[in-house]
Amino acid sequence: MAESRSLPTGFGELEVLAVGIVLLVEGSQLSWNMAVTLVLFVWLSSAFWAALPLLGWGHYDYEPLGTCCTLDYSRGDRNFTSFLFTMAFFNFILPLFITHTSYRLMEQKLRKTGRPQVNTTLPARTLLLCWGPYALLYLFAAIMDVTSISPKLQMVPALFAKMVPTINAVNYALGSEMVHRGI
């Protein structure tokens, strides 16, 4: 994993962080060029996936409570279903696999060096617990009529997903030895 220079499409900030940590644990220097490349890749990947509904594959609509927009999962047509499954693979399943694998590699390396153990399952669990309900809602929408779920209940997965940046920041801040020494 640490020797790979190409990143798959759909990479998010958590997966880039996982790759960066594995590079550091492996003893490689995380250069500014590599860091900028990883951040740029996240932005380009995000722009790519956000633009697809604007180009006709998928569709945007207001969230059930009308507060902001999201993918229109009330459509059950082939266009929606093909976009949903492709997006679920590249933006949920693949990142979950990459995060889990990266942190397992880090755990194995740390175990060999005798360094203090860290909770390597937390990032993958956070991804699964916060984005999993959203993925389940979209998969339910591909199979059944989503209007049978109340709009307030449909907002719960979106709220979990929107909490991810804060949860990740807290996880990494509280898990950092430098922060602990500062407290």
Spatial order of the strands in the main sheet? Answer: 1-2
Work out the helix count: 7
Span between N and C termini? 33 Å
**Roughly how many Å is the radius of gyration?**
18 Å
Sequence stretches where pLDDT stays below 50 over 5 or more residues: 1-11
Q: What is the average per-residue confidence, as pLDDT, rounded to a whole number?
A: 74
Helix content: 55-70%
Helix-strand pattern: HHEEHHHHH
Q: Hey, roughly how much beta strand do the residues contain?
A: under 5%
Question: What does this entry look like structurally?
Answer:
The chain is elongated. Helices cover 68% and strands 3% of the residues. Mean pLDDT is 74; it is low at 1-11. It is built from seven helices and two strands, in the order ααββααααα. The longest helix is centred in the middle third of the chain and has 36 residues, at 78-113. By secondary structure, it is mainly alpha-helical. The two termini are 33 Å apart.
